[in-house]
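[Primary structure, fold]
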Amino acid sequence: MGTTHEQFNVGGMSCSFCAESIEKAYSRTDGVEDVDVSLAHEEVLVEYDDDLLSEVAVKDTLRDLGYTIRDPDKAKRYEQQQAELADGKRRLLIAGGASIVVAALMGWMIFVMGRFESASPAMDLAALGLALGTMFGPGRYIKQKAFQSLRRGIFNQHVLLEAGAFAGLLGGLLGLFVFSSFPTVHFFAVSVFITTYHILSEYTSLIVRTRASQAVQNLLDLQPDTARRVSDGGDVEEVPLDDLDVGDYVRVKPGENIPVDGTVVEGESTVDESVATGESIPEEKTGGDTVIGGSVNETGTLLIEVTATGEDAFLNQVAREIEEARAMKPGIIQLADRVLKYFVPGVLTIAALSFLFWVVAPLAWGAAPNVQRGAFAALAVLVLGYPCALGMATPLALIRGGGKAANRGILMRSGDAFQIFPDVDHVVLDKTGTITVGEPAVSEVVAFGADEVDVLTTAASAEAFSEHPLADAILEFVDEQDVEVADPDAFDSVTGKGVRATVASDDVLVGKPGWLSDEGIDLSKGGDDIERLQGRGLTVAGVVRGGDLIGLIGIGDEIKADAAETIQRMRDAGITPVILTGDNERTAQAVAEEVGIDRVMADVLPDEKREEIGRLQEAGHRVAMVGDGINDAPALTQADIGIAIGAGTDIAIESADIVLMGHRLGGVMDAYEIGNESYRKTCQNLATAFAFNGIGVAAATTGLVHPVFAMLAMVLSVSAVLANSFAGQLLSGEDVNTEFALDERTGGDVSDGRAAAD
């Protein structure tokens, strides 16, 4: 027994107030040692003493607050999200219908009957029925949340909303049974309207948060469901992965995914380990070398001894890192929340004092208590104090920024990205597929005693039957050069080293310099060039014809055309770029020098990438991480802002806050600039909203503001925020044709990017 960690996926969270309420509730629970809430991923991580608390008690705290705990199975979790969405839509339709009817009653009274006060008992009772039906029907769940929050001494948006709703209900009841001069229908209408608004805001938030993502499961699907287990007697049996134990032997054929982490016992092959390292050029594997589950065995058959299974396996560790990083991701306190922390209890206090003042103060000058004026004052304060415009100030600015970003091929998946981008001072970039294209390509050809075309023709002819990725790079380059290639008369592949072939009666070798040297080839004339090409991080293939070295081909991962320009834009903005890669130090340094990056961290595994991001954050830096691979996912989740290249893997995209459609690296700085602009709009919107709320609450304390006018003022404040967010866009005629803009800016790969993002 001792400290236990429990992680839950939570339904029903709609804003940062929800996250704060959960944190406060757990912080006031004996036995809870720490709690982290991720609103962006709807996850809660609780650390508690299991001698004082049970798992059931920990879960009951969430349920008592009115939140749901979703199934850990991701497919079932998505079904639950869809059910929540259907429930939210049903609530909205019912509450929206009640709002339309009560608005019609109000309109009839004001514009047809020309009066504000009670018009007829039938209309009053109809409005009462609508108010009770809305509050205790679709709005019942809000009351549960408000009650449980109040019981724990937590003042949040649910408490403020219910205070306004019950105040409207009380005012209507006073008008119905005590004061005939009260605007009964309008008081009841307030209860209906603010309940409906809250249901609408939560439903909108749920739509944004609900998506059909099963990316972590897709990650685990990289492993086959079964493996070929080889017994001591040599018999081969296909068994489920769960039946494998450490020390078992499995056989993997060419083209198959390696099912387990292990050590090669027999065979030679090239293995694509980009799943772990991000490196696009496959590794040569032979006896004694380690392999990683999820990697792709390309050329030879391998016999592998199992070294890790279950939760200890690499892909399961990555999945766990992602889940933990989501829940532990540093929280971002939005600007509105800093004020709303004090705003809610302040409004409740002012409403109560306003009512007491107009009931008690008249006694001081010999007048009777003015209950009606006190009721008007309290209700108007609660209506004008309800943070409607405040709640919309940030989302509207983000919606505008999101639309502008979409026109530049950028998908903003998290509002936090807008809030935090102005403070980012470090951008950490993966190398392969982020700064580079992510595929091996011929970078340089060196000829000795022959021209480059002759070197290429000889190499391509020898490699014509090869299935090695480096051979594919040579053949693709030759195709682009319109060089004719003849099939070899004889061909033999030497796994992990190169090829032997007969081309036009000449014996040809193409392969690693070390292998060529072992074959007795004199490489002295190419020594300096070999060292130079390897210094640039290139893989060198020597081309030998008739026993003589005729050329060298340097193959590497091509740097993106806009990489150097993007790095310079970062520097100009005061941002420090850093390379963080699983690739080797030499290759990483070569890329860094070419694009202008000073700091490089190489040979870093996925969990180490996340740790490096955490160290930068602990040092006080705000960090954005840019990557595209599975090995980047934990770091993307840990970073303050995770940015995925849209042409990358699903798991990287799911872990990110921002997705760049296509391959452009320049979208990072485009997103940064849009984020800064949106943050400025947010500040302007909040200033406008607070001005309306501040002036409105002050005026409401006089008791002279009719509840109808209070509602109109609330609508006006929202309209002002809406105009500030979108008027400039409409006046400037910004293009809203996202399809065209994406196609223009991503080089025509919209469909690929969108498919990856979906």
